[in-house]
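ok new one. same drill as before - structure tokens go in, u give me an amino acid for every spot. 306 of them this time. try not to just spam alanines like last time pls lmao
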């Protein structure tokens, strides 16, 4: 999850920050809150259709549609039982709005990255463990803001990126291996972490070290990948893959159980992930064609006419 916020900051263009704050808020609502509502409705429909089937009957027997609507209002992963992945939309909305408001005052990505890091560190040092959550990720948005601001500092053409890419390969390779070892050590010592649930493991400083070292490794590896059609499709449809993957994985695992497969290994998990991406292909086509405005995109037919 830190990677998603980092990439969002990495791709944010400065000219968008120059717009008026009200205009930016409308843009964020169009690109994040519209899809949030759309995918919530889709997830709610799937939940209503499957809630009384198999083990889901005991899990959701006492919950109602009103409970689901309440979860949409809070926007918290623990509440969004119809699709926990949807928490990302309202939290990203809050995170970007905070960043853009602060940028209007400071107009410095570096100072914002430093300031958000200090605020997040103070909050985590003084309030962990967080037993009371705030709606729309207002509590964890400060942590997400650290990664978002760092992504802005590492945006294409920045001094940080230029310093990294201009180093010769014989220098970058040992640095990559060292960072990879740091990531493996920190990640293995933290156990399972979950930004959505404000679970940062036994040590929040190590959480940040693990997150940033993992991001550094992935960016280094990704920079060597070719922009194939598959990679480009995945990049262009992330907004659709992310909220739908959980539904398709649940559908696949449910079908597997109906066929008598009760236990899954790591290979099965990879197959379910592949299944979810394959299912997203027709879903993305239909959503872009008929619900493009609800995805924050221009309508396909309007683009063709233009």
């Amino acid at each position: 999850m830190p990677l998603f916020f980092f990439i969002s900051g990495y791709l944010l263009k400065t000219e968008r920050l120059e717009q008026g704050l009200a205009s930016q808020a409308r843009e964020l609502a169009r690109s994040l809150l519209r899809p949030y509502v759309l995918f919530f409705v889709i997830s709610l429909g799937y939940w209503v259709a499957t809630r009384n089937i198999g083990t889901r009957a005991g899990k959701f027997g006492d919950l109602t549609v009103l409970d689901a609507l309440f979860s949409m209002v809070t926007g918290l992963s623990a509440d969004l039982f119809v699709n926990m992945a949807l928490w990302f939309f309202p939290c990203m909305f809050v995170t970007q709005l905070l960043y853009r408001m602060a940028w209007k005052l400071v107009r410095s990505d570096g100072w914002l990255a430093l300031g958000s890091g200090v605020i997040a560190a103070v909050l985590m040092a003084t309030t962990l463990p967080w037993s009371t959550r705030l709606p729309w990720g207002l509590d964890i948005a400060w942590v997400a803001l650290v990664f978002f601001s760092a992504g802005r500092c590492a945006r294409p053409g920045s001094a940080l990126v230029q310093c990294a890419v201009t180093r010769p390969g014989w220098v970058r390779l040992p640095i990559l291996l060292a960072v990879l070892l740091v990531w493996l050590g920190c990640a293995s010592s933290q156990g399972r972490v979950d930004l959505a649930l404000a679970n940062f493991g036994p040590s929040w400083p190590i959480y940040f070290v693990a997150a940033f070292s993992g991001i550094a490794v992935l960016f280094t590896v990704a920079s060597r990948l070719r922009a194939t059609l598959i990679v480009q499709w995945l990049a262009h449809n992330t907004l659709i893959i992310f909220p739908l993957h959980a539904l398709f994985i649940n559908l696949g695992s449910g079908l597997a159980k109906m066929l008598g497969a009760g236990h899954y290994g790591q290979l099965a998990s990879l197959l379910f992930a592949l299944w979810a991406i394959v299912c997203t292909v027709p879903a993305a086509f239909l959503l872009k064609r008929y619900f493009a405005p609800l995805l924050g995109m221009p309508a396909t037919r309007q683009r063709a006419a233009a």
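Residues 133 and 139 are 7 Å apart (CA to CA). and btw The radius of gyration is 21 Å.
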